[in-house]
Amino acid sequence: xxxxxxxxxxxxxxxxxxxxxxxxxxxxxxxxxxxxxxxxxxxxxxxxxxxxxxxxxxxxxxxxxxxxxxxxxxxxxxxxxxxxxxxxxxxxxxxxxxxxxxxxxxxxxxxxxxxxxxxxxxxxxxxxxxxxxxxxxxxxxxxxxxxxxxxxxxxxxxxxxxxxxxxxxxxxxxxxxxxxxxxxxxxxxxxxxxxxxxxxxxxxxxxxxxxxxxxxxxxxxxxxxxxxxxxxxxxxxxxxxxxxxxxxxxxxxxxxxxxxxxxxxxxxxxxxxxxxxxxxxxxxxxxxxxxxxxxxxxxxxxxxxxxxxxxxxxxxxxxxxxxxxxxxxxxxxxxxxxxxxxxxxxxxxxxxxxxxxxxxxxxxxxxxxxxxxxxxxxxxxxxxxxxxxxxxxxxxxxxxxxxxxxxxxxxxxxxxxxxxxxxxxxxxxxxxxxxxxxxxx
Length: 441
Hints:
CATH superfamily of the largest domain: Glycosidases
Low-confidence stretches: none
CATH class of the largest domain: Alpha Beta
C-alpha cells in the first residue's frame, strides 16, 4: 500500500464464508453502501477438505461477485480436522502437522486467484487462544511459510500480520502476554502490512497508532497500518454495567474453549452450562439493569434499541475520521451482516457483545434492510469518495477534520466529544468549502 492510494472504507462479511452454509451474495449490498474493500474469512478445512483435494468454490463465489474496483482481503485460518495439530474445522487455527502441505495449498490458492486479492492475512488475532492454538514462535514459523507462499505466487500482493486486538497498543500497565506476543511479531515477523482492530474508546486511536509506529521503528522500517476491524460502542466502554456482569464473567463465559467446530457455530451454543445459566439470570432481570446494558440485549425496549443505533451511527463516523487523520487509509467495519445460518443464541456473551454491530439485517439467507449504522457508513463513504487525506484542524472545545478531495470541495466535519450522551437530531456537522477556499461555507 502506498501513500498515493485513495482512502477506502470496507466491510468484513463475517467470521466465516461458505463454511457452515452455502456461499451467499453479499458484494452488491456492500457496494451499495460504498464499501471499496471486502475482508473475507476462509479456513483450511474448506479449502482442502481432504489431503491434496482443493475446493475453491467459496473463493470463486467471492471472485464472481466483485468488480475490478473492489479490493479483496482474504484471511486464511490454519484449521483442519486432518492437517492441524489441534483437529477442528473452525477454530482455533494451529501449526500444520505437515507444513509443506499447507504451503502447497496456499500457493495453489493464491495462484488460482490470479492477482485479484490484494491482501492475504495469516490468522486473526493470534495472541488470543480462541483464534490461535499455538505459541508466538509457532505463529512466526507459520507466517514465514505464509509470506513465502503468497509472494511466490503473487509478488504484488501484501501479506498482513495477524490482526491485533484492542488493549495491546498503546502499552498496557503493566505489559501483558498479548503485548509481549505482538512485540515479537513486529520484531521478527515477515509481513508487509500491520492490522489493528479499533474497538474500545475511539479517542485512544491516535495514541494507539502512534505507539504501533514507535514500536515498528524500534525494530526496523515503518510499515503501513490498516484497521481490519472496528465498531462501537463496545459493552465494556460503560463502567456502570460491570457490576451487573460480574455473575456472567465469574461463570467462565470469557474462558476460551479448546476447539470450536462448525456444528457449535450452527447451533449458536458454545458456552458451558454455568455461563449460559448466568446469562439466563441476567436476562431474567433485564428491566432492572442500567439502560447502557439493556440496549445491548436482545429484546430490549424499542427506545433503548433506537438509542444504541444512534450512538453506533455517530461512533462509526468518529472512529473512521480519527483513524484516517492518523494516516490509516483502509478501515474495515465489523460486520456487514449476520452469518447465513440459524439465529444465534442470545444466551451467549459474545452475542451480547457483538451481535448488534451488523450493518444489514438478514432473513437467514439474504442480506436486506439497513440499520442506521449502515446509513451512516454509506453517507461517510460517499463524502469520502476519492479523498486524498484527512487532517485534524485545531479547534477549541471540539473535534474538526478537513478532508481533501481532489476535484471536489474540501469537506469539514465537526463534533463535540461527549455529545453522544445528548439526544440530538444531528450532532455531527458536515460542511464544504467552495473551490479555491480553505474555509468551510
